[in-house]
Amino acid sequence: MPGKLKAKIVAGRHLPVMDRASDLTDAFVEVKFGNTTFKTDVFPKSLNPQWNSEWFKFEVDDEDLQDEPLQITVLDHDTYSANDAIGKVYIDIDPLLSCEAATVISGWLPIYDTIHGIRGEINVLVKVDLFNDLNRFRQSSCGVKFFCTTSIPRCYRVALVHGFVEELVVNEDPEYQWIDRIRTPRASNEARQRLISLMSGELQRKIGLKVLEMGGNAVVGYLQCFDLEGESGLVVRAIGTACTLDKLSPGTAPNTTTHTNTHTLPNTAPTSNACNSPSKDSKESPLAHGCRSTHNSPVHSTCSSQRLSHSQNFSVSVPTLVFT
Q1: Whole-number pLDDT of residue 229
Q2: Which of 26, 35, 57, 311 has its CA 20 to 30 A from that of 229?
Q3: Cα–Cα nearest to 120, from 41, 45, 27
Q4: How far apart are CA 30 and CA 83, in angstroms?
Q5: Could you give the angle at the alpha carbon of 248 between the alpha carbons of 245 and 253, nearest 5°?
Q6: Binning pLDDT at 50, 70 and 90, where does residue 306 land?
Q7: 3-class secondary-structure state, position 88
Q8: DSSP states of 97-152 as a string?
Q9: Separation of alpha carbons 48 and 42, rounded Å
Q10: What is the pLDDT of residues 160-190, one digit of tens each?
Q11: pLDDT over 70 for what percent of the chain?
Q12: Helix (H) or strand (E) holding 211
């Protein structure tokens, strides 16, 4: 297999009270990637459980690592009825797929429920082992960096600008399917939440493939837009500029000047002197900030529990980049 994903559930804290008789919770965790699911043991009578589970291992293709998020579901165990959902965490694996990136995602992540909002935190460890000699880079875009900022980080130099890239992905909106008439609001919200995450990953991978075909290794000015078109479905569009970036050695000043046209976006974030642009080789866990690093995704927005009308859309605006 091209890659092995490993996840470990360490602990939870500040979980909500699910058993009114004892004012405590019998919590356990389901870890899912693709069609494979693992479960931890139930930690009884505690709002701050300590699972310290074994490493759960998933053998997957590298393109699946780009498309699929790691799904962590926290539940309350019930003996005589269905288990109650506490909340979920979606972890983007992209930050671990670059050879220059960190090798592990770890820390406390918020547990989010589409009805009740934040419901505690969970401590996880996530690792990826890639078999580079077997990676099919023409079917995935592992190693392509994505920058949504208005300029290149100072630890990189623009070697070549290849040109404009764009892509579009369309799918049915789960909230307009027939099954939405009989499932719970939480299930409907989670179905849309998961679909948006999958479409975002697929779109980014396809953009990365186009960049590789053009001979580049990065996308600058990455812009991703979601259109909620009611019964017509969900449409995700992305644009960017394909570039070849060279990483500078420490202490070397870049010889490329980047000019930005900021009239399209008044509130432009300042560029830091450090290499801290939200790219796949530097971004932290996506759930620590509530979204993918390359766009303001609605996947983890607090408004995801509300039904959005077909006329609503959301996007992230990025100013035009001109290199001289």
Answers
A1: 87
A2: 35
A3: 27
A4: 12
A5: 110
A6: very low
A7: strand
A8: SSTTS-SEEEEEEEEEETTTEEEEEEEEEEEEEE-TTT--TTT--TT-EEE-SSS-
A9: 12
A10: 999 999 999 999 988 888 888 888 888 888 8
A11: 71
A12: helix 185-213
Tokens at 289, concatenated: 């900030």
pLDDT in tens, 213-271: 899 988 999 999 999 888 888 999 999 999 999 888 776 665 544 443 333 334 434 44
Q: How far apart are CA 154 and CA 99, in angstroms?
A: 20
- What is the three-class DSSP state of 318? coil
**Apex 279 CA angle, 277 and 285, nearest 5:** 105
Place of tokens 């409907």: 188
Q: Are 26 and 19 in contact (CB under 8 A)?
A: yes
How much is the average pLDDT of 308-316?
Answer: 44
Residue found by looking up tokens 């797929």 in the block: 97
Report yes or no: 165 and 216 within 8 Å, Cβ to Cβ: no
* Beta bridge partner(s), residue 88: 73, 112
Q: Where do the domains of the chain lie, and which CATH numbers do they carry?
A: 3-130 (2.60.40.150), 145-323 (3.30.110.70)
Cα gap 271→275, rounded to integer Å? 9
- Across residues 86-110, what is the average pLDDT? 83
- Residue 102 · residue 288 · CB < 8 Å: no
The residue written with tokens 């990953």 in the block is 201
Query: What residue type is 65 in one-letter code?
Result: L
